[in-house]
Structure formats: structure tokens, C-alpha cells
Amino acid sequence: MKHRAFRPATILGTAALLLLAHLPQAHAEGSDNPVARGHYVADASDCSACHTVKGGPPFAGGMAFKLPMGSIYSSNITPDPTHGIGAWSEAEFARAVREGVRRDGTSLYPAMPFPSYARISDSDMHALYVYFMKGVQPVARATPAADIPWPLSMRWPMSVWKTVFAPAVQSAQQDVNRPFPDPAIARGAYLVEGPGHCGACHSPRGLALQEKALSGSAGTLFLSGGAPIDGFVPTSLRQDRRTGLASWSEDDIVAFLSTGRNRKGESFGGMTNAIVHGTQHLTPEDLHAMARYLLTLGPSHPAAPAWHYDPAAAAELQRGDATARGARLYVDHCAACHRTDGKGYAPVFPPLAGNPVIMSDQPDSLVHVVQSGAALPGTARAPSAFVMPAYGRMLSPQQIADVVTFIRAAWGNNAPPVDAATVAELQKSAPPPVLDGKPVPLN
Ligand code: HEC
Ligand code: HEC
Ligand code: HEC
């Protein structure tokens, strides 16, 4: 829902406003207006993260997805009858979103997260359709054709993939309706497993790139951490002690999903997009429901020891002893923001001590954040933007390896070291250096 700027010039106007403030708040989510409801479902489903190109008209598509055999592009899903979906029936729309079937009957690539969207309820599907038909501006722009050479461009293997790996809508809907401890947790499970498609990034994938588990009912692989996306590792969202959310409270999770920051860490990479396009728009009730559901997911590595803060590294740095590998680099380049005790100045500069991102088995995120920097834009509920500088030109692969090894070892993090060869290998796929979302020349 759009917020209007009120300028109450008169006492009467102010009185009217006070009166309004006492009327029950109509949340878009529970609203009777199907366009507003559909808008909310589109936000909860993050449709714009993939279908809106930065700076381009909403939902006009054209975002490239690189697959091993070539690139595909997200579709124009505005109601333009020729280039978009304006001529589609509701049944055709629902079949594309929940089953991955295009209007001509061929299959969509699962870059479109239909295996999760199979869980979207009929009433939310209807609201989505109404929103895309009536609440979105038509844009007459053709979706670029996929640049995948024949015979790999044939879509029929995708329908085989779908038959094997994507859930039938009926069984997905039954799973959504399994028993939960209370209605809020049930709502959270629906949002996380369905529209939110958190598992598309946070669950591990098999050889055919299928998600190994699509819901909390499918075992502890669900949301146990995924493969790097654009160089950033989606961490475990389960109760894993060092690499997951075991030390995050319900409020920590809610703060992170609504603002991209909290006392534990800050979002970067694809998660920032998921927050900016998606979760920041959700009601506090829905965010709490999601957090409560996540807190029910037991650890995927129950044997991992708990993290405890170890003051030794901070004590060494504070008495001028920087002999540990990478310690000197840390003091010179990082401690101003992240502090010698590794606790940062949350939520402006995130703590590195006890941060699951730092202790991950895969060092990809760390190398890329140090190499290319990271920028967290403001959100509606937290307008200030924070930037971590890019060190790719300043530090050699050996130095990046050393400083990353230091933050992985210090403060009780105790994660294994990283060598220069690993850094050099990861640098080949480094994301562009960022400043406030815009690539900047490194210096
Ligand atoms: C993670 C990225 C991603 C998200 C999120 C996403 N899509 Fe897609 N979508 C795609 C891609 C990529 C394609 C094209 C796939 C292909 O060519 O096989 C696509 C295709 C489609 C199509 C088929 C259009 C056609 O012309 O065949 C529809 C309809 C669609 N998406 C609607 C939606 C809606 C509605 C949402 C939100 C509920 C959504 N998408 C969210 C990536 C995404
Ligand atoms: C496009 C991929 C993508 C999607 C979709 C996505 N995430 Fe993430 N998420 C990531 C990445 C990458 C990280 C690691 C970077 C960071 O910490 O911000 C992450 C980190 C997180 C973290 C912080 C973990 C930590 O230890 O710092 C939370 C919490 C989280 N995601 C929750 C969610 C939820 C809930 C959803 C679904 C609503 C979701 N994510 C959807 C990619 C994604
Ligand atoms: C000017 C302040 C500043 C300096 C100096 C700085 N950082 Fe950061 N760092 C940040 C900010 C701000 C973020 C959050 C960025 C985001 O989320 O997009 C961040 C994020 C990180 C993260 C990801 C953790 C998380 O939860 O988001 C790591 C790892 C990191 N920094 C390591 C380092 C290392 C190593 C150095 C030194 C080589 C360094 N930083 C220097 C400000 C700084």
C-alpha cells in the first residue's frame, strides 16, 4: 500500500488524523482489496528481485541468469498483452508460478522458484493475478531470448526435471497444511517455505541442482545452508551453533529481515536483495511468524560445539602484540570499524566475533567481502546506508588470506585457515567492487 504524506494544516485536519489513528489498521495482507493483497503477496514472494532490473520499469524482466550452458532472462510479467502476460488467464498464470509451465506448455527453468511457489495458496494466487493484471503498468518490451545453443536450448529436459524434482501442487499444499504448534508458526512456515522461497538459496542442492529438501517436513537438510550465489554463501538458518541461527533471538531475526542489520551481523549479496525487494515490506506479525518458525528448525550439525567469546586475541592486540597470522593487517585495515575485540559497533559495523558468516565452512563470502567490499542500502525502517570498503587493490591474495584467517581464528571463532591459492581461485569470480550499490573503481 502506498503511504500518502499528510499535511494537517488545520486543527480539524489534525482531529481527523487522530480519529484515523484509532481506526483499526488495515494491513495489506488481510485487506479486502485484492490488488493491495496481491501486492503484498508479490512482496512476500520477492517477484521484483528477479523480474525488475535496477532502474528499469517494474516487472518488465530482462535480468540475466547465467546457467552452465548459457544465459536465460527473467520474463516481462507486466500486463502488456504482446510482450507480457496481459493475455494470460488466471489458470495459465497459476500454472506458470506454481508448476513452472509456460503458456505454450513448455517448461520454465527452475531459476524461477516454482518448486517453492507450489505452496502458494489459491487465495494468494488469485490476489497475485489481480495485482499483476490491475496494479502493474504494462510495458511493451520483449524479453530477450535465452542464449543457450541448440540442442541444450530444448526445454523438454526441464519437464523431465520437473516430473522428478518439483512437487505436485496438491502434495505441496498438503504439506503446507501439516500440523504446527500454533497458527503463527504455521503462517511462518508458509511464508518461509512457500512465497519467501528461502530454501532456493539456503538449502543445499543435488547434482541436478534440485533442492535436497523443500520443507521443514523433509529433514534437517532444509535451510541447512546453500551453495554460493554470486560468490556469497547462504548460511544455515537452522539452530546450528556456530554456523546457523542458534544464538539469534526472535527479535534478532525480525530486525535482520526488516532492516538488513541487527546486533549480530549485516546483510550482503543476494540477502540484501531478498530484504530490499521482499522481507522489509512484510508486517511485523508476519516477520515474527517467520522468525518463530525458523527457531523450530533443529541443527543440521548437532555435534558442533557452542561458540564462546575468547578474549585472548583482543588482549594480544590491545597490548601491541600483532604476531598472530594476519593480526597486523587486521589492526591496520579493519579494527577501526570492527574493533580489536571483534565486537564492532553494531548495527553500524557488524561484529566479526561469533558471526556465523565468519565461521562458515566455506570462506567465499569473507574473501569476496574483503576483496570487493559490501554496501547495505537503507530500508524503510532503517534509512541509513553502510559501506564496507573494497580491499582488492590494496591487499595481495596472500594478505587477504592472512586477514581472513585471522578473523576466522580470533575471538573463539576457531574456524580453519584460508590459503592464498584459495583466495586467488575465488578472485576469478569476484563480484564487482561496490559503493552504495554502484560499482566504483578500486583504489
Ligand atoms: C529467483 C528469481 C525469480 C523470482 C523470485 C521470480 N521469478 Fe518468475 N521467472 C524467473 C525467470 C528466470 C523466468 C524465466 C525462466 C525461463 O525462461 O525458463 C521467470 C518466468 C516467469 C513467468 C513465465 C513468463 C513467460 O513468459 O513464460 C511468470 C509468469 C513469472 N516468472 C512470474 C513470477 C511471479 C508472479 C513471481 C513472484 C511470485 C516470480 N515470477 C518470481 C525468475 C524469477
Ligand atoms: C537470493 C538468495 C537468498 C534468498 C532468496 C534468501 N537468502 Fe538469506 N542469505 C543469503 C545469503 C547469500 C546470505 C549470507 C549473507 C548475509 O549474511 O547477509 C544470507 C543470510 C541470511 C541470514 C543471516 C544469517 C547470518 O548468520 O548472518 C538470515 C537470517 C537469512 N538469510 C534469512 C533468510 C530468509 C528468512 C529468507 C526467505 C525469506 C532468505 N534468507 C532468503 C541469500 C538468500
Ligand atoms: C569503514 C569501516 C569498515 C572497515 C575499515 C572494514 N569494514 Fe568490514 N564491514 C563494514 C560494514 C559497514 C559492513 C557491513 C556491510 C554490508 O552488510 O553490506 C562490514 C562487513 C564485513 C564482513 C561481513 C560480516 C557481516 O555480518 O556483514 C566481514 C567479514 C568484514 N566486514 C571484514 C572486514 C575485514 C577483514 C576488514 C579489514 C580488511 C574490514 N572488514 C574493514 C565496515 C568496515
Distance between the termini: 42 Å
Helical proportion? 25-40%
Quick one: CATH class of the largest domain?
Answer: Mainly Alpha
Query: What is the general shape?
Result: globular
Name of the CATH architecture of the largest domain: Orthogonal Bundle
Query: What is the total number of structural domains?
Result: 3
Number of helices: 20
- CATH H-tier superfamily of the largest domain: Cytochrome c-like domain
Binding site for heme c 3: 334, 337-338
Pfam family, one: Cytochrom_C
InterPro entries: Cyt_c-like_dom, Cyt_c-like_dom_sf, Cyt_C_IC, Cytochrome_c-type_DH, Membr-bd_ADH_cyt_c
Cofactor: heme c
Task: Identify the notable features of this structure and list them briefly.
two-stranded antiparallel ribbon, binds heme C, 38% helix, disordered C terminus, Cytochrome Bc1 Complex, Chain D, domain 2, 443 residues, globular, 3 domains
Outline the structure in words.
This protein has 443 residues and is mainly alpha-helical. The protein folds into 3 domains: 123 residues, Orthogonal Bundle (Cytochrome Bc1 Complex, Chain D, domain 2); 124 residues; 128 residues, Cytochrome c-like domain (Cytochrome Bc1 Complex, Chain D, domain 2, Orthogonal Bundle). The chain contains 20 helices and 6 strands. The strands form 3 sheets. Strands 1-2 form a two-stranded antiparallel ribbon. Strands 3-4 form a two-stranded antiparallel ribbon. It has a two-stranded antiparallel sheet with strand order 5-6. A hairpin with a 2-residue loop joins strand 1 and strand 2. Helix 2 crosses helix 6 and helix 15 packs across helix 19. It starts with 10 loop residues before the first helix and ends with a strand. The N terminus and C terminus are likely disordered. It binds heme C (3 copies). One heme C (HEC) binds next to helix 3 and helix 4. The site of one heme C has 27 residues, from helix 10, helix 11, helix 12 and helix 17. Its cofactor is heme c. GO terms for molecular function: electron transfer activity; heme binding; iron ion binding; oxidoreductase activity, acting on CH-OH group of donors. It is found in: Cell membrane. This is Cytochrome c. Keywords: Cell membrane, Electron transport, Heme, Iron, Membrane, Metal-binding, Repeat, Respiratory chain, Signal, Transport.
